[in-house]
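In response to the reviewer comment on reproducibility (Comment 2.3), we provide here a single inverse folding case reported in full, input and output, so that an independent group could reproduce the run without further information from us. The structure tokens appear first.
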């Protein structure tokens, strides 16, 4: 609990700037938070239900893998453009097999790089698809659960069925 209070106070000081940080007692902090809330600029967060956290983590892992795959594809396209002076479309890149990619280059080093990159792209695609299937399976098992109703709109979350 004390750790949370310390983090909150340091966050308030960071948001308020030097003027607020000079009077950092609980009363002033409470008034400051109330003012942020009144102005509707108080940042909010969401604490996931413990049963949904693994799905959230899977989606984060998927996002990381997609970033890695995109970087590899851009790297491959850059190598192709540098060595041949031509552009390669993304659709053509996605269709390439390892041997085809290696045959695009004369130098053995470029052939090795091309083969490895295509292999890694394929492996990342396979991993991304596995994660997507796992997330969809979890979503199908989840049952809708209305958590609260506000004046603006209704919030609906999904709770995995046990």
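Designed residues, in position order:
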């Amino acid at each position: 609990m004390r750790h949370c209070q310390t983090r909150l106070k340091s966050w308030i000081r960071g948001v308020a700037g030097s003027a607020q940080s000079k009077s950092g007692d609980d009363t002033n902090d409470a008034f400051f938070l109330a003012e942020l809330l009144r102005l509707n600029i108080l940042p909010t967060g969401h604490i996931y239900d413990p049963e949904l956290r693994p799905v959230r983590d899977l989606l984060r892992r998927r996002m990381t893998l997609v970033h890695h795959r995109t970087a590899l594809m851009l790297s491959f396209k850059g190598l192709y453009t540098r060595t041949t002076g031509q552009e390669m479309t993304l659709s053509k890149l996605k269709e390439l097999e390892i041997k085809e990619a290696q045959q695009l280059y004369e130098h053995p080093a470029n052939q090795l790089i091309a083969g490895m990159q295509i292999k890694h792209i394929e492996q990342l695609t396979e991993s991304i698809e596995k994660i997507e299937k796992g997330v969809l399976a979890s979503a199908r098992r989840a049952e809708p659960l209305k958590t609260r109703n506000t004046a603006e709109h209704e919030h609906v979350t999904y709770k995995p069925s046990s």
